[in-house]
Task: inverse folding
């Protein structure tokens, strides 16, 4: 450990820069335009990252290269980070509420630093410098004073390699699940939309599913273990009891609208959500899951200040009602895809737990790697 030394993020950065100010465009009018909202969730989805118009000189100036680290500098997600890797798109610039730290490769491995910035020490540091105001935030100089315990460069690379191998496996499983779900969704669109028969009955969404209100759960009733508590955007904690027996479907009632979550385990939906039950008692709820994804609930905002979904309006959406036997056939085919998705999700949780356990031990030198 004698060869490890304390150094700041600023000391190992050869360039620190604030991002580019522009309006995001959905049409491909220029390079990808990376923003705080794109990195805040923890899993960056490049297909949802917008574009921006930019001059050639600024394009070069704000371009993100492999190994560049961007850090959010304002809002509730101050301190959120993302490190560009070789698999990411090449033509990317970053927005003004992000700060780019370009690591000096002769001193530090950027992917080792990436893992340092995922540690609890980083989270605590950011909380300490960004609190005390209604709008959290931190500037480049403040963030640059974060201290890192830096091993020799070869050991940095070895540590990053160990942790990256876990990340790569997690990413592979996520991509497998995305493919498995896309296959099932393609079949749904073919059978129930493209090949819908003229003699199928016309009805309402409420004829097929029921939107049930979630239940109020106070913050002190949530914990770090138990059954998942589901909000409009996903898991927001855990509770000792469950309200709905799996499998289940949850969508937002207030706040985030249009996200359809499929749950494999018993869960507790809170009052900002609807949980879905089938009017036809179809097995697995796979048909209902893709049906809800196809009706675009996110565009049915019934409130002005806070986005909201009206239950009666949702029940009244016109739909074509297919034969029960076709729905059952579809559910039987989807069963195998969703079983594999469930297995992958369990493996992802195991790998994430292993990575998060190893991370502080490797960063502190408590666990060493050969290099």
Result:
């Amino acid at each position: 450990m004698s060869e490890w030394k304390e150094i700041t993020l600023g000391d190992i950065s050869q360039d620190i820069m604030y991002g580019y100010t522009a309006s995001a465009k959905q049409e491909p009018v220029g390079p990808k335009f990376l923003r705080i909202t794109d990195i805040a969730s923890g899993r960056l989805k490049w297909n949802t990252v917008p574009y921006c118009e930019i001059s050639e000189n600024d394009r070069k100036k704000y371009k993100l290269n492999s190994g560049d680290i961007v850090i959010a500098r304002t809002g509730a997600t101050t301190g959120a980070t993302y490190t560009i890797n070789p698999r990411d798109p090449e033509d990317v610039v970053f927005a003004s509420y992000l700060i780019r730290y370009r690591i000096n490769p002769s001193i530090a491995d950027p992917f080792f630093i990436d893992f340092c910035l995922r540690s609890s020490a980083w989270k605590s540091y950011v909380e300490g410098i960004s609190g005390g105001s209604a709008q959290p935030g931190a500037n480049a100089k403040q963030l640059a004073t974060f201290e890192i315990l830096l091993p020799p460069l070869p050991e940095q690379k070895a540590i990053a390699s160990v942790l990256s191998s876990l990340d790569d496996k997690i990413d592979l499983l996520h991509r497998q699940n995305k493919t498995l779900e896309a296959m099932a969704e393609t079949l749904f669109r073919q059978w129930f939309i493209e090949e819908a028969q003229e003699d199928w009955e016309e009805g309402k969404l409420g004829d097929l599913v029921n939107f049930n209100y979630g239940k109020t759960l106070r913050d002190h009733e949530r914990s770090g273990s138990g059954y998942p508590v589901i909000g409009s955007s996903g898991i927001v904690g855990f509770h000792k009891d469950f309200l709905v027996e799996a499998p289940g479907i949850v969508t937002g009632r207030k706040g985030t609208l249009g996200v359809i979550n499929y749950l494999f385990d018993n869960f507790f939906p809170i009052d900002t959500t609807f949980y879905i039950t089938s009017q036809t008692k179809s097995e697995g709820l796979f048909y209902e899951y893709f049906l809800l994804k196809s009706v675009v609930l996110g565009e049915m905002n019934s409130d002005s200040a806070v986005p909201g979904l009206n239950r009666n309006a949702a029940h009244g959406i016109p739909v074509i009602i297919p034969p029960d036997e076709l729905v059952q056939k579809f559910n039987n085919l989807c069963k195998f895809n969703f079983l594999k998705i469930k297995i992958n999700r369990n493996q992802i949780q195991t790998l994430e737990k292993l990575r998060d356990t190893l991370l502080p031990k490797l960063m502190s030198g408590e666990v060493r790697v050969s290099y």
